[in-house]
Amino acid sequence: MLQYNIKGDNVEVTPAVRDYIEKKVDKIERYFPEGTNATAMVYLKSLNHTQTKVEVTIPMKNLTLRAEERHDEMYAAVDLIVSKLERQIRKYKTKINRKFRDREGMGLAFAAAEQVTKPPYDTGENGDYDDEETDEDLTIVRTKQFELKPMDEEEAVLQMNMLGHNFFVFTDAETNETNIVYKRKDGTYGLIETSQ
């Protein structure tokens, strides 16, 4: 069963808005195994009074669903985001079921801690740090904490793609080491293995 945490930034979350969001996002619940409990975190933001940005994050046990949409009309953005979440689930459903069929089914697949997004620094074309940065440029503006879940590289890539991120930190299930998978510019994937 989905619970909701809906917040607005320069957007009033009226009962009508709340009802619309809950009614629409509830549609994806049919993809969850019976008895699944999760909280859908919905964030609405007005952008320059011309567009509304809608973000939905649904963290579950070993997988996190996340989507973001911008639109001139808030209700249309909600419709688009639900469609995006459904496409995301359908796209990865086969892989998720294959990966988790020996565990607790698809319910186990729907969550993992949300990863830190882009780093707060810019790299040049060759990947070097910009020498012109000041201390202000290196200020950390957001901190996230998450639990590293044991998984293999394929699961990590799957999770990274579902979150829409360029990298994903995970604990390798075989070695118990912290590793990172990342998406390369050519569309292939890379793996950074760590050791102590």
Strand order of the largest sheet: 1-2-3-4
Radius of gyration: 18 Å
Overall average pLDDT = 76
- CATH superfamily of the largest domain, by name, is Ribosome hibernation promotion factor-like
What structural class is derived from the secondary structure elements?
alpha/beta
The third-level CATH topology of the largest domain is: Double Stranded RNA Binding Domain
Distance between the termini: 42 Å
List keywords for this structure.
alpha/beta, 2 domains, Double Stranded RNA Binding Domain, about 25% helix, four-stranded mixed beta sheet, 4 helices, 8 strands, SHC Adaptor Protein, globular, about 200 residues, single chain
Commentary on this structure:
The chain has 196 residues and is of the alpha/beta class. It has two domains: 2-104, Ribosome hibernation promotion factor-like (Double Stranded RNA Binding Domain, 2-Layer Sandwich); 135-193, SHC Adaptor Protein (2-Layer Sandwich), CATH 3.30.505. It is built from four helices and eight strands; from the N terminus they run βαβββααβαβββ. It has helices at residues 15-25, 74-100, 106-109, 153-163; strands at 2-9, 38-47, 51-59, 64-71, 150-151, 167-172, 178-183, 189-193. The strands form two sheets. The protein has a four-stranded mixed β-sheet. Helix 1 (15-25) runs parallel beside helix 2. The termini are far apart.
